[in-house]
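Field: COMPLEX_INPUT
Field: COMPONENT_COUNT = two
Field: RESIDUE_TOTAL = 1104
Field: MODE = joint
Values follow.
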Amino acid sequence: MSASSNSGAFRIKGAGRLTPARTARFTFDGKSFTALEGDTVASALLAHGVHLLGRSFKYHRPRGILSAGPEEPNALIDVSRDAARRQPNVRATVQEVFDGAKIVSQNRWPSLKFDVGAINNLFSPFFAAGFYYKTFMWPREAWVKVYEPFIRRAAGLGVAPTEEDPDHYANRYAHCDVLIAGAGVAGLTAALSAAATGASVFLVDEQPEVGGALHYDAATMIDGQNGYDWAQASAAKLKAMPNVTVLTRTTVFGYYNHGFLGLVERVTDHVAKPDKSSPRERLWQVRAKKVVLATGSIERHMVFANNDRPGIMLASAARTFLNHHGVAVGRNVGVYTAHDSAYEAAFDLRRAGVSIAAIVDNRADPSEALLAEARALGISVLSGHSVTDTGGRLRISSMTVARNGGGNARRIAVDALIISAGWTPSVHLFSQSRGKLRFDDVNQRFLPDIYAQDCVSIGGCNGTDDLAELIDEAIAAGGGSVALSGENRFEWTGGMIGAAEGAGPDTTVKAFVDFQHDVTAKDIRLAVREGMHSIEHIKRFTTNGMASDQGKLSNMHGLAIAAEMLDRPIPKVGLTTFRAPYTPVTYGTLVGHSRGELFDPARKTPMHVLETAEGAEFEDVGNWKRAWYYPKRGEDMLAAVNRECRTVREVAGVFNGSTLGKIEVVGPDAAQFLNLLYTNAWDSLKPGKSRYGIMTREDGFVYDDGVVGRLAEDRFHVTTTTGGAPRVLHHMEDYLQTEFPHLRVWLTSTTEQWAVIAVQGPKAREIIQPFVEGVDLSNEAFPHMSVSECSVMGVPARLFRVSFTGELGFELNVPADYGPAVWKAIWERAESMGACLYGTETMHVLRAEKGYIIVGQDTDGTVTPDDAGLGWAVSSKKLDFVGIRGLKRPDLVRENRKQLVGLLTKDPALVLEEGGQIVADPNQAKPMTMLGHVTSAYWSENCGRSIALALVAGGRSRIGETLYVPLKDRTIEVEVTDMVFFDKQGGRIHG
Amino acid sequence: MLLIHCPYCEEDRSELEFRWAGEAHIARPENISAISDEEFAEFFFLRNNEKGLTYERWRHIHGCGRFFNAARDTVSDRFLMTYKAGMPKQPVPETGASEKTVETYEATEGDAR
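Field: COMPLEX_OUTPUT
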């Protein structure tokens, strides 16, 4: 056997552009096949006479290959290299064969040829459009248990891979003067013209090679040479120019605002052994000053009874398989058309030795030039006839032909049927760019009309049919000048939209409009009869055009059928909006490198490694990794936290406070600025002192809190909550820039510049004493709420005497890079004195024991400073601050607002649930009147019982009352108390 | 993705660098503590949310950090102009482009009725 017969019995010697000696092996459903390099899975299987590729979505009908391009609705396959590199729902007409490819058909069980699901075809009367909505309405419970699992199993297309994707995906940004989408005659010509002006040009095409329609249209001559050869030569010329980027296997999938385009480049999907360093796909995000759309047009199928059997395909597809891949789609091919293009396909096939059973043309008067050529080739043409049905089980075996308007039907044996209802301009990207379409009544197509962006459509997608006109249009679009001539054999005319003869409103045949979603002409008529009068409703009711091909073939037919039923002109019925992506894009491409650790990068403090070495468990606070607790061998979380809580109060604890937000507020008007941003008064704060500040929004609700230290007249060290740092700075900047621009103040984020080591507990002073230079740490010289710039272990530092535990405490701020060294030294000494490391959980418990709030936990954006028991922090003397007016709103000063109080469970061993609702009478009828909820609840080892904070209506007036927290299985009795559970006199902080 | 001209950097930059910051030209009353509840509601809560020409604030947060004003058409998403904070509301320049909307669900709904 020769190499060419190896690669398939339907390979035609001398036809096509592939090299017979260059073969590749692949399997389809376990069976091995030989292909030629450059084959798609579709062309390779057709070469072996395989037409049956899958089963349809709803009825499980046998389906084959309809097209030769990205519009393919039927031939969806599962492609894999190995267990992890597997992708379902790949279009066989786009996937290039590579050596070793494993191809598997989809949506069938147990086998492609015998599929149990095909029984749905017999029950099709029950599966009419909208059947989901009607059939599965009730009982409600059945949704979860019966309907949804059934629908999910029955209606899936393909199976998602289960292993993690081992490939990597790249991302690139680019800018250019002109981006040209599509590299057919129009796109290439525009690129040559634009490149000649010196502009930076991107020429992008989704196919492996440039050429577009020249892949099939072998008769077109450009510049005196074969069109396809001219295209390759032009691309080579363009690639050699420094100002031109030619991207093939690249789809412009999205056209967004302001000339922004999304492109996906398929880098390795066609390669047998991809280089490991190559990304599988690359996302290009291109900003183009001007966009030239040269996306061509897509041939439509004819809508007639049983038009979906394997072996029925678009005429241009058959022509591509013949003229590019060298494959005949059958030995005895029928033609059914309403457009001239199918004639040229028939002529090419006939010349290649394929017999043409007949050309059935539903038009009464095809052009004389075509008829003459057909006669010359011995092809019989049945004009004014239609194909009214087809026969065959897993592949077409006959077509039934009848004269239009009735008459004797006869059956003609065929092994393939090529069809054409004309061409639909690909206006998808134009539509995505928000351009407005107009309906061309004469040619029954939507064309670009009003442009919303700097963009121009040329060629097929602009409805320009004449080649010479197309070339002129392309040269003008490129903005330069090139001399080019073109010539094709036949001018194409004709075309129809809607159902053809024998599939009209009076019939019940299955004439498919949307192959991928199994929508027939009958379904669309049913939708109209059921009251759907907008194309948007018809689309959703029937799911026409809602499959992964977005109705590239079906939209116009569906629209025409609906318009006929509604007896309204097509533009009045409307066209659904095209959305990105043009063809499906993998998640891998969109995600790029943002996966795993890079998906949402963690922020780690300078001491992270040291904390890890000490065995810390971490919790996520925003993007920060914070040490949560430090379990010793054999300790669970509660045991560790209990030990840490005890040790801090008995000895001392060391805590990493580096994540605390820090903002340096500097300038002659710094105090005045803080006066406006915080509820407190700041001019009275002396340098060397700090104060707890509350920030409210204009509405009067607590926004953030933190300790603010005054280092000098004109310099404040502001701290914010860990999660609040960015938004507080944004909020401050907003006021400084737009409301108080007269203030001379500068704001700088210093969160990551300072490492913060908190030492808290009775021995805190003793622990840090040896490391601190230049500060007298005694109570008298450096009392609670003092701040000083000093030196710690020779490093410039800021030392705060501050406490979030109620113990004697210090916070050392040292430059971040020195954090680990200072931490190590302090911890070494602290450990030797019996202190512990403690994490955020212990910090939370200790602060709750003292009734210190956490903004965002004990407050929720509806809490005023007074509600939180912090009314003392709101200055009554200031004339203005952000929130001053909001705080006076009637609802904020009314009685019985929710106030923060303490709760003690009657059973001290019970710890409440945070979020638990609080009621006065647990026996009242549901829904109960809820008084508030638990905001914080912990086991307090130091108190020997559980403690909680809660927001309760009229809370402070209820102190001493008994309330209830009803849970699902029990009700917990609680007593309302004040918020301080430990050291009520507060003496320890001054220790 | 929008392309936004920062009036401080004097460059067109990608939307990624910016953050939207609400309606523009709403001045905080100088005598805010004295205004009525109605005036406060007007100042703080009520926004026009206009279809079509709208004046709004943006911040070049991942650039120069400045807040500025922009006139944008919310139908076409076209930025008509941007200008510095503190400047009075600017008249919008005439644009050649049509502000007609594309086929939308609402539009076709209207036709269908």
